């Protein structure tokens, strides 16, 4: 069996079973674990599966629940780094900014060079990253810690963001669809995200292209609520439709 044919059959198997581990796939397709890991890396890089500890799960099975943070970090990591670097370059001296929770917004914090700014977030990992930067004022929301993703959620989180006004909100994204709008996998994160949007003069969404033309469980807002989209690549039709709505598209290359 050729490699391209095997990878296609592996994807079909994962979509049918919803999830699979390396040992199982190695036995099923009669190839080494090393070969299976290489095939899974290829599928994950294309956004066709989500890597988990010891295996993968189908993207069809991530519709309505949060992906563990370790898997988020692995998915499209190079694209996220480039998106984060471009987003960080938009932060100006004296800005007050919100960083939504997520692996892509964490890359903004890592790339951030600007000093004398204020960062507000509900993400524990982002707060740890920002805390190490000199001359940056950090404010972390209250709230309950959401399992596996280091995100604070709940009434305290929402109230925190309802009572502030900021220059920019950098918003993460689980899915963006021209008809359905912007959506999120888990309902508990939606109220805080809406408060972050309402708090900002400018909303900048950061997401890799695997989230384009997709929709997941919980509706968040219309696409027109964001001002800019920073992504790694985008097809011409999708970009044109976003620009018609008034969303500026920036490509991190």
From TrEMBL:
MF term (GO), any: DNA binding
Name of this chain's protein: Glucitol operon repressor
Domain HTH deoR-type as annotated: residue spans: 3-58
InterPro entries linked: Carb_Metab_HTH_regulators, DeoR-like_C, DeoR_HTH, NagB/RpiA_transferase-like, Tscrpt_reg_HTH_DeoR_CS, WH-like_DNA-bd_sf, WH_DNA-bd_sf
Classification lineage: Bacteria, Bacillati, Bacillota, Bacilli, Bacillales
Pfam family, one: HTH_DeoR
UniProtKB keywords: DNA-binding, Transcription, Transcription regulation
PROSITE patterns: HTH_DEOR_1, HTH_DEOR_2
Top-level taxon in the UniProt lineage: Bacteria
Gene3D superfamilies registered for this protein in UniProt: 3.40.50.1360, Winged helix-like DNA-binding domain superfamily/Winged helix DNA-binding domain (1.10.10.10)
């Amino acid at each position: 069996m050729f490699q391209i044919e095997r990878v296609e059959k592996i994807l079909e198997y994962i979509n049918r079973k919803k999830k699979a581990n390396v040992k199982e796939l190695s036995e099923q397709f009669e190839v080494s674990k090393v070969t299976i890991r290489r095939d899974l890396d290829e599928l994950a890089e294309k956004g066709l599966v989500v890597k988990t500890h010891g295996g993968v799960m189908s993207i069809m099975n991530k519709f309505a629940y949060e992906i563990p943070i370790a898997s988020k970090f692995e998915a499209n990591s190079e694209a996220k780094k480039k998106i984060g670097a471009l987003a960080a370059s938009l932060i100006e001296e004296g800005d007050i900014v919100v960083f939504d929770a997520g692996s892509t917004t964490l890359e903004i914090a890592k790339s951030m060079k600007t000093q004398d700014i204020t960062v507000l977030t509900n993400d524990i990992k982002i707060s740890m990253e920002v805390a190490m930067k000199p001359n940056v004022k950090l404010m972390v929301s209250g709230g309950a810690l959401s399992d596996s993703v280091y995100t604070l959620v709940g009434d305290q989180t929402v109230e925190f963001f309802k009572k502030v006004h900021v220059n920019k909100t950098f918003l993460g994204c689980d899915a963006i669809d021209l008809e359905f709008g912007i959506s999120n996998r888990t309902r508990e994160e939606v109220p805080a995200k809406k408060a972050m949007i309402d708090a900002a003069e400018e909303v900048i969404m950061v997401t890799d292209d695997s989230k384009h033309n997709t929709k997941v469980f919980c509706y968040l807002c219309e696409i027109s609520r964001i001002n800019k989209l920073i992504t790694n690549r985008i097809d011409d039709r999708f970009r044109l439709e976003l620009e018609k709505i008034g969303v500026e598209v920036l490509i991190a290359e």
